[in-house]
Amino acid sequence: MRKTKLVQEGSASSTSAFEKGSASSSSAFKLYESGIIKVSRPMDNPTAPYAAPGEIPDYLSMIDHKAEIADKKAYERALETEERRLNILVRKLAAAKRSLIVVLQGRDGAGKSGATIRIAGALDHDAKLFRSVPIGAPTEDERARSPMDRFFKHERMPGYGQVRVFDRSWYEEVLVVRVNKIKPEPVWQAAYSSLRTLDWMLEAEGAIVVKIWMDISKGEQKKRFEDRARDKPWKLSPSDMEARKKWKHYTAAANEMFYQTGVDYAPWFLISSEDKRYSRVHALAVINQQLSEALGE
Known about the structure:
The chain has helices spanning 72-90, 112-122, 140-143, 176-179, 185-204, 218-231, 238-245, 247-261, 276-295; strands at 22-24, 29-31, 37-39, 99-106, 130-134, 163-167, 207-215, 268-272. The chain is α/β, with parallel strands linked by helices. It has one domain: Rossmann fold, CATH 3.40.50. It has an 8-stranded mixed β-sheet, sandwiched between helices. Strand 1 and strand 2 form a beta hairpin. Helix 1 (72-90) crosses helix 2, helix 1 packs parallel to helix 9 and helix 2 (112-122) crosses helix 9. It is globular and about 50 Å long.
């Protein structure tokens, strides 16, 4: 595997993972030396109706699954640096009347739960600050309401100074809903404007929205599912295997989601999770960079 350049210790740690990148304005993405892909384009009108794009870039094919942090001690140092930086930055949110919303999407088995645990640990599991919000299928009552309504119930959204990590999110409206044909095509197509508008509204009201896609190869997913079946069978559900059968459909849905909703005020960050050490460090680095930028640190 290719060894990635580690984030550096010190005050530059939140930005070093983003240096020396190459950009493509026509495809609305930037590839950084660290392997992170940022999908972002200007969006003056989040409510703009759906317009069928031309050729959608295959962003997922650009992810380098050979990226890794092979040395355990180097990983531990980098992880400690990013965790410490996150703790410091989050403590500044309340005074700035800001909050942090981390959206984790990705392939089944890609490590969203592991990333959530690292964020919680960085914040000393402080219940006053942090809450994890795992999102499953809507209840019958929730199906009778606006799809976005359930994300504002039960204190799922943070107050000033607080952090929420969504393990799956409102973006399921253009992923699982689309792939499984739960709603007609015009409905999920119209959802793109709702998603952009929700992100814009959250940002306008003080939230810092960080959207991360965690990706693994199909071969690595198979291995992790086999490990789950042997060691943690409760973590393997029939829906995981069904989603695996629709790999190509989810790829197409994710690529259009990045294109349609990767906007300047709430970009998407794509990270390889083939190596868990790499993904944990770089997920924290992404969050820290976005926090630092928003807070002017």
